[in-house]
Amino acid sequence: MDAIFKDFGKAYAEFDGYNLAKTLAPVAPEAQPDRLYNFHRSTNFSSVQKDFKSKILHNNALPFKLTSEESNGWVEVYCAYWKAVGEILNAEAATKTHNKVSWGKVYEAWKEMTVVLIRGYTNSGFQAWTVPCLYVAGKYMRVFAIKADEDAANNPSSAINFQDDFNPEAEKNEKLEDAARQLNRMFQICLSDRAPLEESRKWGIYNIINLLFKTYFKLGSVSLSKNILKALQAYRGDMPPLDNFPLSHQVTFKYYVGVICFLEENYVEAEKHLTEAWHLCHKDAVRNKELILTYLIPCHLLTTHTLPTLALLSPYPRLQDLFLPLSRCIKKGDLSGFDAALIAGEDEFVKRRIYLTLERGRDIALRNLLRKVFIAGGVEEAKEPNAPPVRRTRIPVAEFGAAISIGSKETMDNDEVECLLANMIYKLVLFGAFGLRRRIYRLHMKVCLAQPYPPPIRRDFSGGTTSRT
C-alpha cells in the first residue's frame, strides 16, 4: 500500500498524469514484481476504505492538500482498484495451477473501477492532467473484455439461457460491446469539457478515440467509427490541432482514418492519411509500419499503379509473402500467375479486408500484357525513303487474343477480345501505355461536333407533355 500511495503523492505533487496512471495499472512493474500482491494483502474488505482515507484524506505527509470532494473521489477509485487487483491475482493464480479462470469477474471488477473513475471526472472534479488514468482504465478494460468473451466462448455451459429467443451469436462479444459503451462515455467526457484548452480534458480525446476504433474494428462494427468522426468534426473549432498531440496518438488516429477511407473505397483520402501515418511512425515500430503498409500498398497500386519494391518489403516477411507474388505477376503481365497468387493468399487477404482491392490489380496486369503486345508489334516501313520509322499503331485483334490466351490459359473469341479492349480503354488503363488518350479524345470531339444539335425542348408547365420546336 505504501509504495502505491507514495507514488500517488509524488505524481500529484508534480502534476504528472502518466506516473499517476501507473499507480492504477493492473500489471506490476518489473522492478516490483510483488507490488500488486503486497498492495492487496495490506488491507481487507472491512478496513479498506478507512485505510485509504488515511493515506489520501488525512495524510499530513503529503506536500499538497486536496479538497474533500476530490479526495473522496480518489478513495473510491483506489477501493475499486483494490477489489479489481484481488480478482486479477485470483485469475493469475488459477492460470498457474491450470484451474478454471473467471475473466468475467476480472472484467466486471475492472469495469466497476472504470465507472468510479469516470464518476470522479463528472462529480469529484478530477483535474485534466490526470486524464492518463482514463488511458490505463480504457486500455485494460478492452483487454479484459476480450479475455472474458473468449472465456465465455470456450465454456458455453457457463452462459446457459432458457429463453426461447436465445441467440448465442448476440452474446459472442457481450463484454467487448459493454466496454465500447464505457469507452464512449470517456469520449463524451473529454469532448464536452468546456474548460480552457490549457486545462481541458480534450487533450486526452485522441487516445480514447483510438481505443474506440480498436474496439469497433474488433467487433466488426467499422461503421460506428464514422459517428466518432462526425462528432469530432462538429467540435473541430473547439479542439486543439491534431499536430499538437503526441505522435503516438497522431499515428494511430491517421492509420484508422486511412483504413476507414480504404474500406469506403475512397483510395485517394486513404492514401493521404496512411502516408502521413507512415512518415510519422517511429522507425523502430516495425509492427505498426507493417500494419500501415498492408493498406498503403493496395492504395498505391490503384492510385499510382506503383508496385512495392523488394527493398521496401525486406523488413516485413509477412508482407513479402502477401504482395511479392502478386507484384511479380502484375509486372510480367502473367494473368494465370496473378489468379493463382490471389487464390493462394485469399484467406489472408479477406481477413485483412484487402481482397477486393487487390483483385482490381488484374486490370494492371492485363494492361502490362497488352502493352508488351504493342511493343512487340515493331515498327512500320517508312513511306518516304529518308523518313524515320514509325511504330505500328494498328495491332490485329488476333495478336491481343493470343497473348491473353497464353497469359490466362483461356481461349477467347475475337469478339470477347474486342470487348475486353474496349473496357480497358474505357477504364483509362491503356491510355498511358498506348499513347491513345489524345487521339481518342480528338476523334471523340470530331464525332460530337459532326452531329447536329437537337432542337431545344420547350416544357409545358400547365401539365402537358414536353415538345420540341
Could you please describe the fold and organization of this structure?
With 469 residues, this protein is mainly α. The chain folds into 3 domains: 2-158 and 171-245, no CATH class; 269-356; 363-381 and 389-450. 64% of the residues lie in helices and 2% in strands. It is built from 23 helices and 4 strands. The protein has helices at residues 2-14, 17-22, 35-41, 48-56, 68-96, 103-123, 132-154, 174-191, 205-219, 223-234, 247-263, 267-280, 286-303, 310-313, 317-332, 335-344, 346-351, 355-359, 361-376, 397-408, 414-426, 431-434, 437-450; strands at residues 379-380, 390-391, 457-458, 467-468. The strands form 2 sheets. It has a two-stranded antiparallel sheet. Helix 9 (205-219) runs antiparallel to helix 10 (223-234). The termini are far apart. The model is unreliable at 159-168 and 430-469 (pLDDT under 50). This is PCI domain-containing protein. Belongs to the CSN12 family. It comes from Venustampulla echinocandica.
